[in-house]
Amino acid sequence: MKRRHLLAAAAVVAIPQSGRAQAFPERPIRFIVPYAPGGSTDTSARFVSEKLAAVLGQPVIVENKPGGGTIIGTEIVAKAKPDGHTILLTPAAMIAIAAFGMATPYDIDKDLVPVVGFVDLPILLAASNSAPFKTVAELVAWSKAEPGRTVAYASAGIGSLTHLWGEYVKAKTGLPMEHVGYKGSAEALRDVIAGHVPLFADVLVPTATAVRAGQIRGLAVAMAHRSELLPDVPTVAEAGLPGTEGTVPFGISVPGGTPASVVMKLNTAFNEALGDAAIRRKLLELGFVPVGGAPQAYVAVLANEIAKWRKVIKDAKIPAPS
């Protein structure tokens, strides 16, 4: 996804339009979530959809369309009628897909229009209870104690944003980290708990549950402020890794060609829902950071994230996921 295309999409959003779009919404809205039901991301979508329905005056029906690394659900929206009645919980995986330049059955420059930032999911650096370090400072000291020593870190898989974040930390700090990719967070977590891999780079939810249960140790959250979910775990800056903040951003998109007036009505509705005090409190308790803002703000996030991870991929010579 090229920055000029994203900015062009934002410019289109700002152009007023008239006609039937002004009557939007005219029927229930399909809220496509490209993940399996029951997960934290699905939960956040369902929670916000209730308020969204009240604001828009139409039911907002969450439909789970997992598979294909989020491509299946994304394709459904990319090829849907561009009238605003089909919206996408835009997966963070789309950023990695774009950064790697991977082929998809849709053109994200043309077939999707950004509406609003939804939530950010912070990244967590955790350690096995059997690891020979309990803090980031001890990790750094341990890694330097023997020449050539490396420390393995697990992630949900090659090409995941948590894998790329680990490589970003490695480049920023010089820590001799070595990636161990798994087929999902659950599999990686099992090995970290068992002590087979000392470090774990994963999203805060649901890994925070294992930290709170004492199964693994939280070393740092990649946020500017501490998470309400793990208030005792320091931020990366507090832990001694300044400049390595990182989140997994989720947004809302609609099919390309959706009238700008519809995009703005959806944007306003999501901002109202995300601005609700009860909803914000619930999302923070779940480990998410509510975002909101103008479409252009989400466009800028996408462009910046893609450029950031594209550089990490290039510098670390990471192969595209197969």
From TrEMBL:
Highest taxon of the lineage: Bacteria
Question: Secretion signal: which residues?
Answer: 1-23
- The answer to whether keyword Aminoacyl-tRNA synthetase applies is no
Q: Name one Pfam family in it.
A: TctC
* Signal is among the record's keywords: yes
Q: Which UniProt keywords apply?
A: Signal
Q: Which family does it belong to?
A: Belongs to the UPF0065 (bug) family.
Report the protein name in the record: MFS transporter
Query: What is the organism of origin for this protein?
Result: Reyranella soli
